[in-house]
């Protein structure tokens, strides 16, 4: 699983091996982003071919599935 951010978080040190193996900072360099995620599945705002994201639906999904997602991301048993 990779996490991609358009701008680095000041609290993260990208030089740490664990961080750099999980999180990739791409800025607005779409060709770098496209090495990890093809433009055919990305919205236009990320240099892709799909329509823009509906962040309200994404927010609702994350909010409604917080416990399940936390357990998955933290590797906790269900």
UniProtKB/TrEMBL annotation:
<dbReference type="InterPro" id="IPR001251">
    <property type="entry name" value="CRAL-TRIO_dom"/>
</dbReference>
<dbReference type="InterPro" id="IPR036865">
    <property type="entry name" value="CRAL-TRIO_dom_sf"/>
</dbReference>
<feature type="domain" description="CRAL-TRIO">
    <location>
        <begin position="19"/>
        <end position="48"/>
    </location>
</feature>
<protein>
    <recommendedName>
        <fullName>CRAL-TRIO domain-containing protein</fullName>
    </recommendedName>
</protein>
<dbReference type="Pfam" id="PF00650">
    <property type="entry name" value="CRAL_TRIO"/>
</dbReference>
């Amino acid at each position: 699983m990779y996490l991609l951010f358009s701008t680095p978080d000041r609290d993260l040190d990208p030089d740490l091996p664990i961080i750099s193996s999980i999180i990739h900072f791409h800025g607005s360099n779409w060709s770098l982003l496209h090495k990890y995620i093809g433009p055919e599945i990305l919205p236009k705002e990320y240099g892709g071919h799909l329509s823009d994201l509906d962040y309200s639906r994404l927010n609702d999904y994350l909010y409604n599935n917080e416990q399940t997602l936390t357990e998955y991301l933290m590797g906790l048993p269900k």
